[in-house]
């Protein structure tokens, strides 16, 4: 097949290479056409943004040796000047790395099959070491590592309506004699089905991965300019000298699939999400976040933003794009006298709670301690303190935010009240918040704990939970859970694995009053477990952690309920005691109190009159297990309470479509949110979330 090369978009100076005329081989299918720069620009031209020259064709040659020779006489070097073959072979001018695109079978990389629709993220290249002037091998050692993103370099093989390609890599040798002939023969056999060959010079500014298999080598990672390769009716190879763009102004860690930490960093709370971003930008500052956004826009990369990584549908990670990881941004500044705190977006609630509690203060957060502050707050934020002090979003006073253009702005209710309105429940649609300013409240140790009964008492326990909630003061927070008893030290051995109903409560007031208010919950016969006592707030925040271990397979649905009639109690009790997995949960949280005090239109989060919030979660360990029976259990349980449902919590939404996203907001708020989105992000750069489309899109 021949191939025509196009530039995917205007960009850095080197993108002019791709704006040359179409280049199609006119020889037999076995011929190979090598395309290289006719000449190279001066360093002044590169710095000033002058376009590179057109491409000239060196054809036909079936062996890559001629192309190597041509490249040696016309390659790009650090000073942007052409060099002779002899100078190119010196150790200070390392060889050009090559990636071949094959529209054939999947590529086996690192003993693992990699198949995608359109691209594969990473491949390694072995490059023979160049010789010194005297012909002896230099100190530079192979292999060279080149990581390629399907979004950065994409190939489209148009055949029967499919666009499936894979990347492959081959070695390039500077050896001579019989060894070189064998190398060329092997290379020819490996490249016999090649569609295109793209290259990037090694000297461009690149991060250095720390890969365990590369000890003693000098690995590099290249970020390639975006190209589109369209297959036609002939077979050809193309080689393009393309400088690798740098992530300008970025001082954090840039990971690619070749890095040793890549697989660890890309993993998120929901283990059923297995996406491989092309690049992970581990930001250390607001400037890093801005640089990452600009980089992604320049190269048309989809963006995912990770704070704590608890996004249920996995919006914290993106396939083939740029994952902006905020987890290294851990600053917390508690201003105890003013009862304020400034918090960076990578902070987890357990870290924030610990810092604030050192001063006897806290702000409403979630109920799982390793949830990120950023995502939970922007979606509303419901937790143990919400009946007393409102949502996390209600206590958000100001932000620093990186916009879709990479600009940095600050906002509060005086400078930009409309943006603050949208950030209090509108999710990550309007920018990347890099600093949160919260109001803090005095929070002393609470009377808190959990009581657990056998599953046969589920209906009685839920009725007692409902009655306690109806008369509860706002200082009392209540959660009911239908689960299987965990293998915990406080659980009797005979109860482990059996369906149980648990009721957790926390009273933020006099401990004696708390004992009186929770007595009815603890008196339904003989409980299996009773952990009530005086508990510090940071410890309370960790009480439910054991049931929410990161890395498990998850499927979740949620709703707000108005009322809890007997029919709803019976349905929840039945499904909750007949789970598809012993790790499943049916959670029911009592709302009201300070949540309902504010006008529904005062924030983007508007479902303030709801009485309860359900969270129905199927959880299982084995990723190879068929998820359908777990999804079916969740759907049946969720549907059983739909007659009393009104609206949903955006932080508990899965990948359920635009209709469900609209259910998370009041009708009058939706149009206001779309107008704000059009103002802040008209191109929908921040689309990987519970997305609000820009007005007029």
From TrEMBL:
GO terms for molecular function: FAD binding; oxidoreductase activity. Residues 1-30, 164-192 are annotated as: Disordered. Its cofactor is FAD. Pfam families: BBE, FAD_binding_4. InterPro entries: BBE, FAD-bd_PCMH, FAD-bd_PCMH-like_sf, FAD-bd_PCMH_sub1, FAD-bd_PCMH_sub2, FAD-linked_Oxidoreductase, Oxid_FAD_bind_N, Oxy_OxRdtase_FAD_BS. Keywords: FAD, Flavoprotein, Oxidoreductase. Residues 273-443 form the FAD-binding PCMH-type domain. Residues 168-178 have a biased composition (Low complexity). Belongs to the oxygen-dependent FAD-linked oxidoreductase family. This is FAD-binding protein. It comes from Microbispora catharanthi.
